[in-house]
Amino acid sequence: MTTYVIEADGGSRGNPGPAGYGAVVKDASDGQVLAEAAEAIGVTTNNVAEYRGLIAGLRATLDLAGEGAQVAVRMDSKLVIEQMAGRWKIKNEGLRPLAAEAGSLVRRLRVTEWTWIPRERNKHADRLANEAMDAAAQGLTWTAGGSSRETAASALPEGPGGGAAAGGSARPEESSRGAAGVSALPEGRVRGAAVATGRAAPSVPRQTDLLDAGELSAPTASVATAQQTAQRTGERTGTGWAPPTRVATSLLLLRHGETELSVQRRFSGLGDAELTANGLAQASAAAGRLAREPYRLDVIVTSPLTRARQTAAEVAQQTGLDVEVCDDLREADFGAWEGHTFTEVQRRWPGELAAWLSDPAVAPPGGESFADASRRVQAAREHLIERYEGRTVLAVSHVTPIKLLLQDALTAPLQALYRMHLDLACLSLIEYYADGPAVVKTFNDTAHLR
């Protein structure tokens, strides 16, 4: 019979970026909270932080109940759960020492289950991780009882994670006890910890872990990492960036699959073409990729046009998420050119085509200019970032809206649209930070189609 339940979590604000973990041990019979642990662990990735959370939970259980205690482990990291259960191989060399450390602790307990749970059911551990990161951002260390203390991190030498040792030692063997803040709670009482400011910390969903799996061509240093480095070295870059206050809002951009018009290379705007059999296969391949680690989609939004909705439906089927329709993500209106090839347009409207190719403010006859399309697409972007702040959003759309979002993120002129190419069913990624900057992490990725 299971006696204890461990719920653990970890997150990184930048991935890699400032990171922390949280873990809670509960009585399996009534859900009473028996112990909590949390720590900011410097600059690292989501997966490392998640493993550190697991290790902290296992250590807290051993401290509380001793060897041989029966415990169920529940996390919203499918990667950690499946790897510790032995169902998935550990391909990332950097995670193997952490898995080995967790395994040595597991052998001292009786683990009755390894269970993945939805993020909504792991709020307690998630909150603790965010409290630890929030405290570290203010030069404080998370401690039991809802208080924090000032840390001498700024006077310490650089830690192995790339930053000053925030929250005590950054050595793995000390990460889950002592300075990390492990709290055994009085019997019969459940305590909710508070951040150093005295306000309850929001539970911010972590961003998709895109670096550990190596599937997306993301840079190894994110905006948050650059900020952490500048803070540590005292370097002033003149960018005006403030310290990161939360995780990024990740916007994954998926172009729809193939249609008959795309095969024939015809202008395809508001005409409601359907996917071909090959287009459906492309959509299914993209969905299969997005349904696996390291992707953790929170929301799917789509253009109202059929080819995009069919593509989004494939992802929804494989992820179990609902689909929201966003009208402003529709393709540009090509007016009289709809359904024509480029050659046909060049022969019938040579002057209009030349003007359209040279000026984003010029519209096709009876259609929509790129400048006009940009205004509605950027309105959609602002809506999504505000509504789903800190989450991972998949937007299924078309060539023009996706190019416009990328152009805006790069602060490039609208003429940059003429210098981009996007393949069918390709993925791009933009991350938006609360303090202003946007970062394009990948562009026109079609690895799932190979």
Describe what this molecule looks like in 3D.
The protein is α/β, with parallel strands linked by helices and 450 residues long. The protein has 12 helices and 14 strands. The strands form 3 sheets. Strands 5-4-1-2-3-8 form a 6-stranded mixed beta sheet. A 6-stranded mixed beta sheet has the order 11-10-12-9-13-14, with helices on both faces. Strands 6-7 form a two-stranded antiparallel sheet. The longest helix has 20 residues, at 46-65.
Explain briefly what this protein structure is.
This protein is an alpha/beta fold.
The side-by-side strand order for the widest beta sheet comes to 5-4-1-2-3-8
Mean pLDDT: 80
Question: Number of DSSP helices?
Answer: 12
- Biggest sheet details: 6 strands, mixed
Distance between the termini: 47 Å
Number of strands: 14
Order of helices and strands: EEEHEHHEHEEEHEHHEHEHHHEHEE
Key structural traits:
6-stranded mixed sheet, 450 residues, single chain, 14 strands, elongated, alpha/beta
Blueprint of the fold:
Layout: E1 4-12, E2 17-27, E3 33-44, H1 46-65, E4 70-75, H2 78-84, H3 96-106, E5 110-116, H4 123-137, E6 140-142, E7 148-150, E8 182-184, H5 223-233, E9 249-255, H6 260-263, H7 277-290, E10 299-302, H8 306-319, E11 323-325, H9 342-348, H10 350-358, H11 370-387, E12 392-397, H12 399-409, E13 427-432, E14 438-445
Parallel strand pairs: 1-4, 4-5, 9-12, 10-11, 10-12
Antiparallel strand pairs: 1-2, 2-3, 3-8, 6-7, 9-13, 13-14
